[in-house]
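Try it yourself: sequence plus protoporphyrin IX containing FE, in.
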Amino acid sequence: MAFSFDPFDFAVHADPYPFYRALRDEHPVYWSEGARCFVLSRHADVIAALNDVPRFSNTGGNVIDDSRAKLGRTVGSMDPPRHTAMRALVNDAFNRRQVARERAFIEAMVERLTATLPAEFDLVRDVTSPLAGAVMAHLLGVEGADLAEFKRLIDISMYRDPATRARTPDGEAAQSELFAITARQVERRRAAPGEDMISALLGMELEPDSVVWMARAVFGAGFESTSSFLANGALALMRHPGQALLLAAEPARLPDAIEEILRYETPAQRFARTLTADATMHGVTMPAAAKVLVMYGSANRDERAFDAPERFDITRKPARHLGFGLGPHFCAGAALARMVGQVFFAAMAPRLARCVPLPGPLAWAHSPTFRSLASLRVHQTQAL
Ligand code: HEM
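Structure, out:
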């Protein structure tokens, strides 16, 4: 059967890596008929595209099927110089909130969520999702929101109808509801400002709508990707108990382990760009206006850039991984995400060495962008 790659394919969600290898080796510039976009899979090519900012534009959105309503309103869907100005505000809002101040809150949340886990539990539902949601809510100053409901809405809005490749009507309704919840939170903060990020953004005299879009984008970007990062890392450590034991015995390895998790099971696998002019790579010309997928998940498994990339090895130093992207759109929340990872894996590594996923297929989300577990049921083989 002829090779085919489609980011909407359930077989790709189940195990994207054999597809990536074939793409890198045989089709470094691939046209995906299903998704109607070009696909770049080699580390060097993804970096070349990300460095060619004028040609590989974000104005058509940074995910393959971005909602039109979002375009030009979030940092992810703007180019410099507009992006530079907005991104400076986002960075400033992060600085004012001082990410380091989140550590005590994160530690308390991890302690609370992991103190009394039963012999069998769902790591995503019971730990990583509530943790990521609570951290984002705390950062932004969202209070009194039902985070489980928020996650439910994110899951519905992430799902793509296999027939239409679009959000379902429920997914569209969930998107609107997420926006409405954020708008209410922004109004709350306008009436009673605090030390949180929404208050910082409100202090910047942006259009009222821009604050809501920015807060919504930060919440969405941070919640799903952080939860996936923690769950994907926990899965890798459970599947490699020797690495979990090493991490538990030598916590100084945490920073390298976190980078290796981001490389090995990259939470945000693929982002999109739109060409402003023709671009030729490996003898293939991609015409202006075409969409291009830059596949961070594949670049991070490229044997041209990493030794034995299929091996999960927390002792390597995968400095050039693209788990947070590269260039002007490099993840705004990277420092916070790394800190959450440090606290979570420091607490969980000894336990993960004694946990196994329950048998059965893994529940990977049907998303063209994220490698995200909707659920990860786990059995502790030995009480701590
Ligand atoms: C481990 C968790 C995370 C991962 C793997 C991740 C990954 C990424 C990646 C790959 C990009 C680049 C997208 C592109 O190339 O178009 C990005 C952008 C972004 N991320 Fe994250 N992210 C994480 C956590 C967070 C958190 C916690 C926040 C907020 C608190 C956040 C906010 C953002 C924003 C606002 C952007 C857009 C930046 C821009 O376009 O200038 N992310 N993220």
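One thing you can check immediately is this: The chain has one domain: 10-380.
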